[in-house]
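Tutorial sheet, problem 5. The two components below are modelled jointly, 535 residues in total.
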Amino acid sequence: LLLQSTMICIDNSEWMRNGDYSPSRFQAQADAVNLICGAKTQSNPENTVGVMTMAGKGVRVLVTPTSDLGKILACMHGLEVGAEANLAAAIQVAQLALKHRQNKRQQQRIIVFIGSPVTYDKKVLETIGKKLKKNNVALDVVDFGETDDEKPEKLEALIAAVNSSDSSHIVHVPPGDHALSDVLISTPIFTGEEGGSGFAASAAAAAATGATGYDFGVDPNVDPELALALRLSMEEERARQEAIAKKAAEDNKDQASSSTDAIMAEAELTLNAPADVDADLLKDDDDAQLLQQALAMSMDEGASGAAAVADAAMAEAAADDQDLALALQMSVQDAEAAGQSDMSKVFEDRSFVTSILNSLPGVDPNDPSVKDLLASLHGQGEDLVLMVTGKQNYLQNSINK
Amino acid sequence: GQVDLVDFIDWTGVECLNQDPAHGIANALKQGYREDEGLHLASDSDEQLLIYIPFMQVIKLHSALFKGPEEEGPKTVKLFSNREHMGFSNVNDFPPSDSVDLSSSHLLESKPVTLKYVKFQNVRRYVHLSLAGG
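Model answer (structure tokens):
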């Protein structure tokens, strides 16, 4: 997982009032920024993201790099639009903010949204780019909004100066039907160099179909904890199934293969369950329903889990000894049937029963009815159990009166 | 007696600014790499290199050895003991703990440079700025 510290520079200049990106350039930009923040913090929980403005009240840092997504998104509220963007100063300030990051292992990155015209010379931008490269900072540029002959060329020159082994990118987004965020999702700005995180890939797929779907039908921005919890439990489940399958695979007995089949079938069931949850969540936000789904899942899982563990344990033990295997199998089969008969064996032990009865409050072993009971012990099985419990209840009742 | 401090370097924190990605800091510091004549550390955009080396414990720095070609090797090296958050922009704001001008004999004959020992008694991390000649 790539460890990154990112500073996002927002263009909140007067040029952002234009509506050629719906609903407005500024809003489209804000959506894209929110999406990027989410993607970065999700792809690695140790990633940090900071946000700053290039215009409005001036070049200022709204939030220094942090991994707290809520804090990052909160600072986007109530931003004013106005004045002119100062690109050079903004990049310098961003660099400074990154230099003072706590975790030195994080790779430094600046993402600049530039929707207003670029007033600086190409030469100046190249110098800035070189300085960034020298300080090991990567740069992503989103060129949107105002466009003239020179702007793309200048920005390309900037990226060329910074770029070192394809770590820096530039994306030009012309106005049109597509939302700024949708266009960006499929670019390396989102997907990064390694070619995609799960989040970005699924979001890209969803965007392609026109829906705003996420991995688990839950918007990570709205409820990041739930999304994270669902994702973690999916991964845990996968890891567990892999471990069990691996254990079973180490065996070459027929027994192992049959139990593996059983496990695989159960694994499929439990893995499909999240998909059902996903569909239901999209329709209905009701907490009670969600709880029900979770309970159903865990119950299914409980039964299959117990069986799977038992099978796996059996398979391993059986590997050593055929006789043992046979015995184990028999005992498993008998276990269900033998529930009651075990009990009856216990009650055959007279002294044991006597001690139990003694421990019951108000029972006198010399009481004739108790003596009759003890005499009729041998071989009575289930009936005896009921009788004893009945007696206990009777005794309890008499005490309570 | 003196020991080679390579074992005390905290590799997770080693940083080298302005290094050429193909010729990185490991080539100069790591055992195995640094002996290899074919591997070297080179700068990228310009002739300055800023190397940040944290140690796993406090050490006393006695001397440093610089090896390189006469023409392209470092000419001036400034060392800063226990400085954080150094960048090319602020490195010249502080006086160096020591400053070394390397001659060709240092570079070619691998003569270690004795440093001002008193200034390096308590080194937890050290920053090294090297400047090549014209």
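Marking note: The interface with chain B takes residues 99-100, 104-105, 130-131, 133-136, 164-165 of chain A (CB under 8 Å). Full credit if you identified this.
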